[in-house]
Every structure is written in structure tokens, then in C-alpha cells.
Amino acid sequence: MATTAPTLLYSQRVVIEREFDRQRGYWGRGGPKNTLLGVEVAGERRISLTLDGWPEEQAGATVTAFFREPNDWQQLVGWVNHRSREIIATFPPISWIAIAIELALFVAWLAFLLHTSWLWVAPSAIRLGVLAGTAVLGLVVGYAVKRLARTQRERRVLEAFKDSLMSAAMHSLNAEVQREQ
User: Fold this and answer.
1) Is position 178 within any domain?
2) Structural domain of residue 89, as residue ranges?
3) CB neighbourhood size of 84 (10 A)
4) E strands present in 42-143
5) Dihedral angle at the C-alpha atoms of 133, 135, 139, 141, nearest 10 degrees?
6) Positive or negative, the Cα torsion across 145, 149, 151, 155?
7) Residue of higher predicted confidence among 82 and 119
8) Distance of CA 46 to the CA centre of its chain
9) Which UniProt keywords apply (predicted)?
10) Displacement of CA 151 from its chain's centroid (Å)
11) Residue 138 lies in a domain
């Protein structure tokens, strides 16, 4: 049964029956590792999954998959492997460093515009174009910040689930040891 996670993610426990078309690569030229693959779950093929890193083969694994929309594999956030406790995520390579650089460039551009005199004496069409471009740049930076915040919230949900799996395993192990004594 699917349940809703705290950040409006939907979870579903599934068995990955088989894996196919695995291709390892990088995000961009020399960037972080990624894996493209397809999986078969409950007799249905799920293709074009892009995973962060180079995870081990998942065929036969029981996992809890997390989705932004219920059972929509194109909206997959990632999964937690129950046996290895490994988090397999679909997060894009975006970092606070990249956003800080974008934000610094945006602020520098705004400072340049405010301290330049040519913009205010330029024809209105040029002024309008520069201001519209600045607004678009601001929207791009805002979207990047929002996307990174969402990615970090989703990562925390997967980490919390992994931790709950580990504590449940430790609890059952302790109970077994106590029964033997």
C-alpha cells in the first residue's frame, strides 16, 4: 500500500524483478557520475530512469520507491534498498556552490545596472530589453534555489526512511538476542 511521506512524497514497496539497458556515464563533461537504466516491476517495464552515481545491480532487490506522484515512475525521486540500506536517488547535479555563483553574478549585474549612467539615457527599447533580461535572470536564479531546496527536502525523506529501516533491523536483532538468552 502506498503511503504519503512528510514532504508530499508517495512511497511504495516494490521488488525490482530485473534490470536492463544499464549505461554508466557522467552529468556533463567530467561531472558527477550517473546511471541510465530500465527496470521491470510487477511485470511492467519502467524505462529511462536516470540515477545519481553508479549503484550496484538492483535486480531481485526489495526497495521502497518514493514518487512525487503516486506510482509515476517518471516522477521517481529515488528508492531505498531494504537489504543494503543504499539510497538510490534521481537528484540532478545541483549544489549550493553553483547557486551561490549564480546569485553573486546576478547581484553584480544588478549593481552594474544601478551604477551605470548609459542605461538611463539609452532609448526606452534598450532599457526595457535590459530590464526584461534581468527579470528573466532573476527568475532562473529563483528557480534554481527552489529546486535545490526541494531536492534537499526529498533527500532528507529518503535518509529518514533509511534510518528507520536500520533502527527496525537493530530492534529485531536485539529482540532475537534477548530470546536466545
Assistant:
1) no
2) 3-93
3) 13
4) 44-52, 62-67, 76-81, 87-89
5) 70
6) positive
7) 82
8) 18
9) Membrane, Transmembrane, Transmembrane helix
10) 5
11) no
**What residues are paired with 44 via a beta bridge?**
41
Q: Say whether 127 sits in a helix, a strand or coil.
A: helix
For 12-70, how does the pLDDT look when each residue is reduced to its tens digit (9 = 90+)? 899 999 988 888 888 777 777 888 888 899 888 888 888 888 888 788 889 888 998 88
Contact residues for 167 (Cβ-Cβ < 8 A; gap 6+) = none
- CA quadruple 127, 129, 134, 139: dihedral sign: positive
Beta strands 87-89 and 76-81 are antiparallel
Interatomic CA distance for residues 7 and 3, integer angstroms? 12
Q: Examine residue 52 and state whether it is found in any structural domain, yes or no.
A: yes
CA–CA gap between residue 116 and residue 94 (Å, rounded): 33
Which amino acid would we find at residue 180? E
Domains held by the chain: number? 1
Question: pLDDT (tens digit, 9 = 90+) per residue, 95-151?
Answer: 677 788 888 888 888 888 888 877 778 788 888 888 888 889 889 888 888 888 888
Please indicate, yes or no, if residue 114 is contained in any of the structural domains: no
Q: CA-based diameter of the chain, in Å?
A: 88
Grid cell listed for 49: 530512469
CB 64 within 8 A of CB 82: yes
